[in-house]
């Protein structure tokens, strides 16, 4: 097997030649057959090539197309060789290589199907005392790097590392000599010799070259040829910090991408009703699964496509941008790479301090509640002769026996007023209540420290024809609450096989399995400690957990109605007695065939099939609050026997099951063509794509369920009769029949029966795009796609919508007048314009009807018209103009991009008013338009560049996003202020505008004291502004941040690393901590701390009165009024990461290539919040819990 052709290329150095001969002798007997075939293939393949004055890089690309051999070289090395001309017909590769490399000072070496280009090496001519160096070269992950050039600086003495990354080099025995290690895609590294004879070198990725290829999903495009706005994040960058899912990891890394509130948005909100999240593409095809289900450890790169030139090829789903994820592949032949990661995250205990949560503590609320009940029993009705003090006491006692919600402070004052206890005993009771801290007791019994663990195991290996990847990821989380837990398993296999020289097959299977156990649905039982009065005792006198009573549950002081169950609930027991278990399974199967037809032309077929299934079971035992409510609600007294009869099973609980499933597939056939002739290069693709989505499901309900006996009594229940009952025939609450339909049938029974409607949609598309490049300087790009969907089409002109884009690019750094600027590595100007689309699944061209349950009277199925026909229904359109600049200076030490864009949405779905005679008052149609425009800036700078892997480095990456959003056209039928507050869309304002009632102070007029006032028409004030004209409202800003800034810093030295991410969100507003009117008896849950400054005749504040001075009616205006409108700007350290890579001499002793340790702090205290109330804009209250992650990474 020939490794080097002599000709005029020249022989390798003596040392290298001897090494090569030794290897050849050792392996010739074992591999002679393989070598013969391989060598013959190398020499016998006949090639024709004709190029004139082109770069060596272009020649190698053409040779790769014809032979399948891949070339490894340094761009800088090739740039020094100038242009070459070759015209050879039917020659073998060796002859062509000899001509190409003649007089270049380069030589080549064949390693399997890789041709390594490197300088010709020689040994010094003058005899010197020498030493022999040995060593190996690996990447950051501990994988060997073959083909690395090792050169003695200032000479032509050097070698190339072998397939295992090993090398041997003889150099003069002198101190201070420097070895230079260079490899394509890696940063050149210099090592000064100081007596060592064994070297272990770890090379780092070169940002400039690693970003040269951009994956769009349909094709791979070199950065020089890209005219669109794209940001690429490598796996190395992603690994700088740990997050449980990809979206959190992308925060502040991509200019133009907002993850505010956990919702990814690219370049602003461009729709009102349609999908606003970007499309997710995994390994080339769009997927329906959630981005949170991707394994964060198995991502090789993420490309975010932001403008039309980058994303228009995806057509009707490209309006919101695209996130293209490429999973990792095997890298080393003949070896299995094993990587293992383990992380444990500990969360801070939840802060349940009342003041920190902007709430009164027990002492403060008992004091103010006591002031009120003193007033209630002794002075409130002093001027009403019909309400004597005895009558007040009598009425209050009746409220107790009727089951009204009674708090302990009120009951103590009632006992005192009724003469059952004296003043000193009352004071003692109130003092004891003031010492309670319900939230802390709740936390001690219900909460637990949240612990999340994640483990990842990957095995990757490859041979000449096969490449295999198996990745297993497991995550478990106790969710911070007793009787809660979630488990998540992700198993992914991806393999590829060279079935023939002209055919490559790729296939993958991904399974996601999730199990979640949590508290079941019960509207009366709340797991928020601040839903219960802070002075409420969590324990009984004997130390057992006390029963609690909420709305329509009665109270602890009332006598039980005969035969009825007590509706009090013990929170600890309730978490065991009512549980929901969710089991979710998602499978994704992906296949890909690549046919190499002729040089430059390939055909590709791809298919992805996804199936998901979710099963949700709520099991409430007989002792649960929900089961007891159902039993009470449907009990009736038999008129003859005068005994209670239960219309639902008397024993057992209930089991409610909801099953949903989805089936989705996408098939694509595509032709790929590339050709270079002279200074011209053409790249084009064309294809067809078809897709189908289908979702369906069903529900079931079992009553009288006994899990241990596996028995039920559902067959004894007449659901038709139950559904017709508005009120309970026997059970009384608050002095009236219990509203069983509202509080029993609807929440517990009706929601557990019926079907989940089946929804099926089909789509078809044809597409084409092409890029023309002249002299590696000028790019012209165009794409066209036409989409069809069964959602649209009553009108033929809307059945298919053409979507297209064009772009131009100028690689200024390749111009002759700039080429001599040594500090300029890359400078590209680009412009693009295009049209993309979006779909709203909630609309249809046809009139639709929804089926319901069986009518209890006719026993026939019921259906109702749900939406009118709209023959003009069509895709939303987004027209995007983008101007961008990409740059890299000073050996890419300074790098980044700058973009300005205008994205205008037309035919946006929005509601319109209809003539009532049509049978509908409104419908959603293509009637609105929206504009987003903004600036995106990305800057990366290496403050310090290391001379070797363990040297000091400091890199800063800054991203700046500014987006201005405006509704250009929309019909808003709002005539009242409340309507515009609820549906805030208005022409000339942002999509997510905030409309505020103008606060006018607190009323101090007799009979109206303590109530909030708002400005209405003509400068007047009113307690109720919601029904006033929309003109009374004030535009308060927008809830979406206008500006997002992220600054990521990474410092490394001698194996230690420190990273921290700063994020700034600004230019937006929020409604928070509303100063609401409260009923005078609203003491059953904690009041906001602002009410310590509530209005009284002696204290004319802007806080509504409470107790004696409370409002007689509650308005909703206070929640969206100017006095609760705050700036939402903030600056935070999102995380701080400290890591340590153990030295190789330690890891090798235990047979491990790499061991890394990591500690990370997430969400420490905010550095700065603009509002002076201390409100965290991300929670609208107390700050997010901090968490602490400990992790270890092992590579074998």
TrEMBL record:
It is a multi-pass membrane protein. PROSITE patterns: TONB_DEPENDENT_REC_3 (PS52016). The keyword Calcium does not apply. Residues 650-1026 form the TonB-dependent receptor-like beta-barrel domain. Residues 223-322 form the TonB-dependent receptor plug domain. It holds the Pfam family CarbopepD_reg_2. The keyword Transmembrane applies. One of its GO terms (cellular component) is cell outer membrane. This is SusC/RagA family TonB-linked outer membrane protein. It comes from Odoribacter splanchnicus. The lineage of its organism: Bacteria, Pseudomonadati, Bacteroidota, Bacteroidia, Bacteroidales.
């Amino acid at each position: 097997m020939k490794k080097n052709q002599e000709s005029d290329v020249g022989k390798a150095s003596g040392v290298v030649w001897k090494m090569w001969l030794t290897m050849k002798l050792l392996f010739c007997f074992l591999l002679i057959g393989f070598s013969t075939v391989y060598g013959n293939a190398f020499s016998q393949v006949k090639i024709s090539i004709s190029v004139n004055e082109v770069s060596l890089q272009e020649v190698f690309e053409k040779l790769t197309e014809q032979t399948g051999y891949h070339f490894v070289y340094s761009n800088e090395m090739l740039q020094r060789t100038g242009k070459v001309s070759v015209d050879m017909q039917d020659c073998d590769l060796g002859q062509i290589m000899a001509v190409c490399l003649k007089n270049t000072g380069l030589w080549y070496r064949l390693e399997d199907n890789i041709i390594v280009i490197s300088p010709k090496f020689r040994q010094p001519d003058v005899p010197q005392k020498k030493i022999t160096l040995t060593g190996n070269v690996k990447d950051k992950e501990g994988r060997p790097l073959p083909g690395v050039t090792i050169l003695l600086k200032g000479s032509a003495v050097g070698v190339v590392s072998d397939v295992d990354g090993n090398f041997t080099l003889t150099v003069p025995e002198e101190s201070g000599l420097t070895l230079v290690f260079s490899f394509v895609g890696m940063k050149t590294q210099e090592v000064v010799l100081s007596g060592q004879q064994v070297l272990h070198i770890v090379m780092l990725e070169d940002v400039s070259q690693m970003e040269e290829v951009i994956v769009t999903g349909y094709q791979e495009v070199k950065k020089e040829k890209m005219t669109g706005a794209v940001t690429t994040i490598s796996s190395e960058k992603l690994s700088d910090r740990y997050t449980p899912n990809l979206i959190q990891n992308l925060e502040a890394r991509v200019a133009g991408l907002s993850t505010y509130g956990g919702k990814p948005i690219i370049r602003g909100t461009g729709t009102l009703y349609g999908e606003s999240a970007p499309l997710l593409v995994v390994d080339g095809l769009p997927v329906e699964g959630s981005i949170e289900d991707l394994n964060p450890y198995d991502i090789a790169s993420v490309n975010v496509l932001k403008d039309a030139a980058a994303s228009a090829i995806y057509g009707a789903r490209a309006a919101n941008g695209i996130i293209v994820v490429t999973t990792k592949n095997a890298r080393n032949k003949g070896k299995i790479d094993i990587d293992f990661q383990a992380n444990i995250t500990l969360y801070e205990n939840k802060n349940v301090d009342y003041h920190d949560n902007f709430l009164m503590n027990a002492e403060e609320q008992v004091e103010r509640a006591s002031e009120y009940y003193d007033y209630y029993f002794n002075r409130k009705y002093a001027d009403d002769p019909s309400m004597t003090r005895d009558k007040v006491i009598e009425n209050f006692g009746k409220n107790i026996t009727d089951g009204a919600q009674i708090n302990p402070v009120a009951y103590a004052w009632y006992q005192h007023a009724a003469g059952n206890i004296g003043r000193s005993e009352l004071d003692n009771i109130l003092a004891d209540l003031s010492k309670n801290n319900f939230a802390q007791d709740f936390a001690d019994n219900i909460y637990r420290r949240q612990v999340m663990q994640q483990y990842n195991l990957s095995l990757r290996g490859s041979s000449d024809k096969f490449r295999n990847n198996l990745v297993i990821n497991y995550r478990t989380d106790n969710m911070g609450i007793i009787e809660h837990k979630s488990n998540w398993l992700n198993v992914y296999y991806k393999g590829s096989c060279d079935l023939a020289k002209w055919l490559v097959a790729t296939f993958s299977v991904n399974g996601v399995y999730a199990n979640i156990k949590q508290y079941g649905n019960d509207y009366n039982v709340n797991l928020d400690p601040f839903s219960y009065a802070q002075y409420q005792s969590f324990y009984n006198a004997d130390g057992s957990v006390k029963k609690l009573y909420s709305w329509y549950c009665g109270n602890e002081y009332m006598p039980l109605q005969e035969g009825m169950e007590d509706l009090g609930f013990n929170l600890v027991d309730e978490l065991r007695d009512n549980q929901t278990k969710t089991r979710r399974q998602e499978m994704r199967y992906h296949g890909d065939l690549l046919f190499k037809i002729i040089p430059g032309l390939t055909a590709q077929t791809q298919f992805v099939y996804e199936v998901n299934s979710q099963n949700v079971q709520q099991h409430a035992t007989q002792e649960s609050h929900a089961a007891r409510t159902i039993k009470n609600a449907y009990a009736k007294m038999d008129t003859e026997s005068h005994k209670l009869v239960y219309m639902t099973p008397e024993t057992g609980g209930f089991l409610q099951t909801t099953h949903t499933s989805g089936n989705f597939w996408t098939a694509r056939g595509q032709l790929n063509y590339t050709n270079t002739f002279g200074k011209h290069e053409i790249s084009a693709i064309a294809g067809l794509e078809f897709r189908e989505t289908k979702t369906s499901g069903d529900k079931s309900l079992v009553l009288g369920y006994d899990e241990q006996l596996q028995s039920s009594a559902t067959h004894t229940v007449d659901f038709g009769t139950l559904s017709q009952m508005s009120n309970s025939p026997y059970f009384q609450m608050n002095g009236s029949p219990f509203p069983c339909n509202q509080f029993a049938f609807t929440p517990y029974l009706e929601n557990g029966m019926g079907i989940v409607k089946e929804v099926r949609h089909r789509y078809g598309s044809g597409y084409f795009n092409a890029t023309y490049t002249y002299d590696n300087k000028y790019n012209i790009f165009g794409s066209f796609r036409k989409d069809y969907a069964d959602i649209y089409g009553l009108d033929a002109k809307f059945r298919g919508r053409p979507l297209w884009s064009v772009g131009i690019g100028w690689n200024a750094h390749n111009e002759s007048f700039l080429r001599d600027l040594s500090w300029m590595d890359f400078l590209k100007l680009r412009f693009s314009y295009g049209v993309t689309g979006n779909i709203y699944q909630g609309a249809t061209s046809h009139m639709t009807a929804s089926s319901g349950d069986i009518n209890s009277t006719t026993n026939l199925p019921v259906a109702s018209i749900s939406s009118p026909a709209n023959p003009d229904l069509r895709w939303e359109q987004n027209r995007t103009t983008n101007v961008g600049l990409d740059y890299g200076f000073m050996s890419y030490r300074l790098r980044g991009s700058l973009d300005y864009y205008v994205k205008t949405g037309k035919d946006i779905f929005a509601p319109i008013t209809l003539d009532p005679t049509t049978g509908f008052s409104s419908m959603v149609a293509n009637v609105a338009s929206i504009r987003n425009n903004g600036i995106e800036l990305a800057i990366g700078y290496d403050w310090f560049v290391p001379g070797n892997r363990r040297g000091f480095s400091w890199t800063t990456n800054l991203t700046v996003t500014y987006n201005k959003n405006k509704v250009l056209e929309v019909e808003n039928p709002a005539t009242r202020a409340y309507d515009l507050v609820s549906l805030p869309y208005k022409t000339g304002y942002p999509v997510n505008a905030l409309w505020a009632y103008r606060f006018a102070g607190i009323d101090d007029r007799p009979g109206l004291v303590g109530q909030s006032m708002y400005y209405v028409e003509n400068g007047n004030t009113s307690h109720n502004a919601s029904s006033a004209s929309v003109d009374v409202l004030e535009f308060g800003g927008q809830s979406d941040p206008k500006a997002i800034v992220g600054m990521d810093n990474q410092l490394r030295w001698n194996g230690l690393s420190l990273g921290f991410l700063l994020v700034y969100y600004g230019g937006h507003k929020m409604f928070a901590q509303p100063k609401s009117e409260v009923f005078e008896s609203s003491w059953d849950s904690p009041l906001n701390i602002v009410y310590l400054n509530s209005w009284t005749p002696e204290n004319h504040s802007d806080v509504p009165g409470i107790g004696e001075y409370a409002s007689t009616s509650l308005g909703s205006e206070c929640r969206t009024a100017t006095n609760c409108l705050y700036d939402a700007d903030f600056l935070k350290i999102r995380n701080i990461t400290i890591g340590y890579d153990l030295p190789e001499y330690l890891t090798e002793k235990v047979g491990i290539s790499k061991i890394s340790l990591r500690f990370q702090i997430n969400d420490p205290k905010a550095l700065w919040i603009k509002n002076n109330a201390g409100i965290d804009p991300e929670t609208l209250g107390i700050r997010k819990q901090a968490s602490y992650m400990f992790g270890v990474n092992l590579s074998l």
